[in-house]
Specification:
Shape: globular
Low-confidence stretches: none
Distance between the termini: 11 Å
Strand content: 15-25%
Number of domains: 1
Structural class: alpha/beta
Helix content: 40-55%
Order of helices and strands: EHEHEEEHEHEH
């Protein structure tokens, strides 16, 4: 896929502190990050960019992250999706996301684990 500098990521996370930390972590690795706190802002950002990866928290403002990812995939068919959030206790939810091609990465995680997961997802075929 090239270097991190060639990769753009749309980060959809409602919590402003978590969003800032994840954005800074990704940018430190050289990724171009477009951050959004809600689905409407994320859709607006798609007018200016076509990201290589969507990173979406399990729950975002007014919608589940899963439903947001499905909607954003209608705008970007085949885009890689990494869902992150609290511990996923319902195996049916994790299975549903996995069947739709979404990677699932539960919290808590370190910055190094997060970056390793992002790199792994970006290396997967679409």
């Amino acid at each position: 896929m090239g270097t991190a500098r060639d990769v753009s990521i749309l980060l959809l996370v409602s919590d402003p502190v978590v969003r800032l930390i994840l954005k800074e972590t990704l940018e430190h690795e050289g990724y171009t990050v477009f951050a959004a706190g809600n689905l409407g802002t994320a859709v607006d950002k798609l007018k200016d960019t076509t990201p290589n990866l969507l990173i979406i928290s399990l729950y975002v403002e007014d919608i589940s992250g899963h439903d947001a990812a499905i909607y954003l995939r209608t705008k970007l068919p085949g885009v890689r999706v990494l869902m992150t959030g609290g511990i996923i206790e319902d195996d049916r939810l994790e299975n549903r996301m996995t069947l739709q091609g979404f990677e699932v990465f539960p919290k808590p995680f370190t910055a190094a684990e997060f970056i390793a997961k992002v790199k792994g997802v970006l290396q997967q075929p679409r």
